[in-house]
User: Fold this.
Amino acid sequence: MGVKGYHFYLKKFGGYSEDIDLREFVKDRPVNTIVVDFCAFYMSKLKSPRYATALLLEKIMEKSPESGSLGLPLVHQPLQKIVEALIKEIREEIDGFVGSLPSQPRVCFVLDGEPLPAKHGTHKFRARRSYQHLKAARRLVNLYIGRQTQAPAPATAATKFLARFGARASGWIRWFRPLKQHIVQELVRCGCANSFDPQGESKLSVIVAPFEADPKCVELASLCPNSMILSSDGDLQIYPFADDSLVGRAPIGSDLLLFQVTFRC
Assistant:
């Protein structure tokens, strides 16, 4: 579900641990299993221009494939290529993070499954808002292409287009079902086990929760001694799970990510 205003109040009252070295914070703990709330933790990465913009253009090109040859200041990439780049970046980050820990823990990525029926109204509102951004982005593309057919657009026009298109992409992007399916397939192709066994030996696993990922993360972590949940979801604070918890911002790879680490020893 959700803790309304959780991050707002943490930010307002200085509740974040800033400039923290997440590796240093974790390395002295005997962590054997890291469960990653994938959709929550990597949402900021998905909304970054390099992915949100590429995914929005790919969506628009589904119905307007001819626009790719009409001078847009963007390079069209198929969905699979975008997902490959996203997973490559995530794998490099998580491998680097795990490799820096003395315990060399295994990692399980948990993705959101079906929309939670209890949040039907919220999902409907978000879908409607996302669609409004998609329509506005299509209008931007048509307007830019229309002007290009009359005369080459100056550099300032391209810059303005990219800024407006990027804003629409950030408002439109969500963890759409086809996107999550491609992500799971790519993780499996890269060597992740498509299941998680608490007594197993797989170093990397991926599973899809029945509904939202946070209760599944808690369930899996509770089955593993010396476990840790990596997320940015405030819901985890209300589960009777954690022996220790920290909320903050830290550089992970090339991004400054909002995180919540929850331990059970």
In short: DSSP finds ten helices and six strands in the chain. The longest helix spans residues 120-150. Residues 6-264 form a domain with the Rossmann fold fold (CATH 3.40.50.1010).
